Automatic annotation (TrEMBL):
This is Kelch repeat and BTB domain-containing protein 13-like. The keyword Repeat applies. It comes from the Eukaryota. Pfam families: Kelch_KLHDC2_KLHL20_DRC7. The keyword Repeat applies. Keywords: Kelch repeat, Repeat. The lineage of its organism: Eukaryota, Metazoa, Chordata, Craniata, Vertebrata. SUPFAM superfamilies: Kelch motif (SSF117281), POZ domain (SSF54695). It comes from Scleropages formosus. SMART domains: Kelch (SM00612).
Amino acid sequence: MRECDQEEIHLKGVRARGFVIVLSVMRGEQPILDSDEIVDAIECAAFLQVEPLAKHLVNIINTDNCLLMCHTAATYGLLDLFHSSALFIRDAYCDLKEEARCLPKELVEYTESLTPSMYVTVGTHSPAVEMLQDFMRTVCYLDEDEKDWKVLTDLPTNASTTMAGVAVLDNKLYIVGGVRDISNKVVDTCFCYDATTDTWSTFTGPHQPRYNFSLVGHDDCLYAIGGECERTPMSSVEVYKVSTGVWSHAAQFPRPVAGTPSAKALNRIFICSWKPVGATDIYEYIPAKDEWVLLSKLVRPHSYGHCMVAHRDNLYVMRNGPCDDFLRCMIDCYSLTTGQWTAMPGHYGNSKGALFTAVVRGDSVFTFNRNMTLEYTIENNTWKPKREMKGFPRIGSFWTFLLRVPRTTKQSMRRDILSNNYKKFSNHIDHYQSSFLQCID
């Protein structure tokens, strides 16, 4: 190309501001863009076919810019960005329905045809107890229209969610490890649930058997971070490449950790760890460099982070309140843009561990306990109660996440309400106790 020998190249149809953003992203920066910058960036990404910039735009989609992203991406032909924006709008459609009327009719129809994400949970289940399988193996979703919980699918018979690694990647639920019983014997087989086809499959486990670890899904990979083996905390990290089905080792975590909270913000991986002295550390894993970086340390006497969720460029860390009060949690917000911590005002009720079930969708946070399912809305870095729905009628620890379940799958699935399952469960218990007494006699 003759341009290779030229000292200057004049690009027509590309604004200077958009090109500056391209250079910024290519240097590894992750700029937060305003509306005018978004339009210029999309134009430049489409004209110059800059894939890293297109991915960055996907990572910064939020309720303030999703409509602009969707319309502009459709105009310039950035299909991945257009589809990602439409999915985001669909998830927050209740809040954006009025504003979405500004979009062309065909874009609105496309958005409404998409499947929204649902709040899904599964309890801790061990395959050791055969009698409880039918009841305890259910994966359940929140039907927001009926404000009630319903059954989505059953765990495979040999699957364990007790102290397992659980993550969602590309609308598939992955379960790695877990223990069979109180002996802490690790389950070797890993399981994958495809929400689109409503089917389960298996795959091999990591080289190092582990339980009580963090599992994070990111860009075709599953990261198994830390955990325990024979009651000994580990710092080892393994990565599973989904497309190849191969486990490999990654950079070790800076110190042995077990049961640490994790979150993804702006498509970046973060781990929240703590020390006994009351310090909460935020680490970021950088896949391109295969290294861990300490971002910040929060010191609160006699307190540490139990759960962490992400919203936009913020990480929210839930920690116990004064005097180790777990019923009134404090929430601290760490801004990835400014690098500053902000203590959210007041206390947040954590009855029966409700806050530890938190999942973010759009500008909403979903939590539940046996009494109620509560949706918060995030405004100005504050969580405000938005609506209440029926509680999840179980006890124990839970994994929570988002899945997109096609309408055909929901129509064919069992529509059992969990309260009915409880009655069946009680009958099984009564029958078991009667049989046991007869054997003793």
